[in-house]
Amino acid sequence: MSMIEWLNTIPAGVIYLVVGGIIGLESVGIPLPGEILLVSAGVAASHGVINPILLATFASIGAIVGDSIGYAIGKRFGRKLLTWLGTKLPKHFGPKPLAQAEKLFERWGAWTVFGGRFVALLRILAGPLAGSLGMPYRKFLLANATGGIAWAGLVTAMSYGFGLVAGQWFHRFSWIGLVIAVAFAWWSTRIIQKRVERAEAEEPEPARST
């Protein structure tokens, strides 16, 4: 039985909860097929089984809440937890994937949380790693929320419009998507910085008292 066929056996209201719950658990740091499930649910929505807007909403909530829980766990238990997980799940939490993720965090900070939502490895690591590295929660939450909403909306819309082939696109081009997201973030940040510098340079100096 395929995942779509399995979803068709579940009441529509329960599908939203299942999708949101699985995505939430994946975001906490448990390796689960959240994106594949969302793609399958998006295809089911295109067949009129569920509402795509509600689906994207529940997926967004699951992503945001799950990442926040993962952040809290990472902040509380830190490196000890990640080291222990590396012995149990070396493919996802071993020294190599952790080192790659840490390099991205050190260079791009919150933008890694945003762009990482589109990459399977970083979807699992983003919350716990951001917490263990001490990223301020407000900064994390902003990137987490915008990334979760963008990812859930895009995956739902693509799978609703293009079917299961959308899942293959996301799997194949996820790292390319991250590079594009990071490049756009760098570009927009530079523009903002230049505008601020220009505004400060044009600001008249205060008159000196005699």
Automatic annotation (TrEMBL):
- Which spans are transmembrane here? 12-32, 52-73, 141-163, 169-188
How does the UniProt record describe the way this protein sits in the membrane? Answer: Multi-pass membrane protein
VTT domain sequence ranges: 32-159
Q: Name one Pfam family in it.
A: VTT_dom
- Tell me where in or outside the cell this protein is found: Cell membrane
InterPro entries in the record: DedA-like, VTT_dom
Q: Which GO terms describe its cellular component?
A: plasma membrane
* Keywords, comma-separated and alphabetical: Cell membrane, Membrane, Transmembrane, Transmembrane helix
Q: Give the family from UniProt.
A: Belongs to the DedA family.
Q: Know the name of this protein?
A: DedA family protein
What species is this protein from?
Saccharopolyspora aridisoli
